[in-house]
Amino acid sequence: MLKRFDELTEPEVLALAIANEEEDSRIYLTFANRLRPQFPGSAKVFEDMAVEEQGHRHSLLALYERKFGKDMPYITRADVRGFLKRRPVWLMEGLRLDVARRQAEMMEFEASQFYAKSAERARDVDVRKLLGDLAEIEKKHESLAAKLGEAVLTTDVKAEEEATRKRLLVLQVVQPGLAGLIDGSVSTLAPIFAAAFATQNTWETFLIGLAASIGAGISMGLTEAMSDDGAITGRGSPWLRGVVCGVMTAVGGLGHTLPYLIPDFWTATAVAGVIVIIELWAIAWIRWKYMETPFGRAVVQIVLGGLLVLATGIFIGAS
Questions:
Q1: Segment 67-110, tens digit of pLDDT
Q2: How many CA atoms are closer than 13 Å to the CA of 48, on its beta-carbon side?
Q3: So what's the pLDDT on residue 233?
């Protein structure tokens, strides 16, 4: 049976506060250890937060011993109704910085509410004062992350961490997604347009394109997932990369496959051709934007190369 908050005695309130501060401190230290290799500035923020939580714990312990002695009841958040159920994000593989910060903000908000309500119910003057002071500390700032971030995360550190986030985005999402998009868009051009001009049947062409796109997506996704576990390269979860690569491969092929749902062959082919041009230019732009490829080189590699593959498919199909 969970206890209601208004059923807690003052010793139980202080014991619960001490347990909460100890747990929060350990969570923040875990955040710091997990984030330190890639985000040393933010890791320092969480270390400072852990130190502050330990300071709160020592103050609460000293007050408890002075008021109630050395015997303390065992009580945790799990024993009391009203506390938010936390997802153990600190156990996640590849913990993201934004996830850790959001968790910290939630923890500090909950602590502020707990101390404010506890201070209102406290009858002992010293207990009421300490809990009220702790509530004010939490209310003064939305989170310790924000407060300590202003002091620790300098402009240079923020810029460095932003560059790290961008690099991780490129390695874990953009790069496999781009590889899939290129493969799906370019490699399916020849078979789809060869089938279109060989049969001049839009439905049969659609089925061939659908099979080619989905089959290529599955193949590319599995290849990407099995190519690198990310442990050394820092490219993140292999299954995330595999899903991104596989989905983008299928999307690349389906883009110029779907127009063949149009019954008229020449209309469908004209729409598919326009989509091909858009796809190729989009891929060239992504390579320029995220992969630091000169735009002229990206155009030659992708647009010109894709048009050559398209022409090959049309020539073979029309033969």
A1: 999 899 999 888 887 676 676 777 776 777 777 887 887 788 78
A2: 17
A3: 47
Closest CA to 186 of 77, 71, 312: 312
**Rounded alpha-carbon distances, angstroms, from residue 15 to 82, 133, 169, 170, 239:** 17, 17, 43, 47, 43
Q: Are residues 196 and 171 in the same domain?
A: yes
Distance (Å, rounded) from C-alpha 135 to C-alpha 120? 11
Query: Could you give the CA distance from residue 235 to residue 242 in angstroms, rounded to a whole number?
Result: 11
Displacement of CA 177 from its chain's centroid (Å)? 16
**CA 253 – CA 246 distance, rounded (Å):** 11
> 221-230 long-range contacts, Cβ below 8 Å, gap at least 24?
221/180, 221/245, 221/246, 221/247, 221/249, 222/246, 224/176, 224/179, 224/180, 230/172
Work out the end-to-end distance of the chain between its first and last CA atoms, rounded to an integer number of angstroms.
79
Instruction: For residues 206 and 226, give the distance between their C-alpha atoms in angstroms, rounded to a whole number.
Output: 30
Bridge partners of residue 80, in order along the sequence: 3
Q: Are 38 and 99 in contact (CB under 8 A)?
A: no
How far apart are the C-alpha atoms of 105 and 89, rounded to whole Å?
Answer: 13
Answer whether 0.85 is exceeded by the pTM: no
- For residue 245, CA distances in Å to 114, 158, 180, 202, 237 come to 46, 30, 5, 28, 12
Other beta carbons within 10 Å of 158: 13
Across the chain, mean pLDDT equals 81
Last residue within a domain, chosen from 108, 137, 153? 153
CATH number, domain containing residue 60: 1.20.1260.10
Task: Please choose, from the candidates 220, 97, 112, the residue with its C-alpha nearest in 3D space to the C-alpha of residue 167.
Answer: 97
Neighbours of 94 (CB within 10 A): 13
Q: What is the pLDDT of residue 231?
A: 45
Give me the domain span that covers residue 295. Answer: 159-318
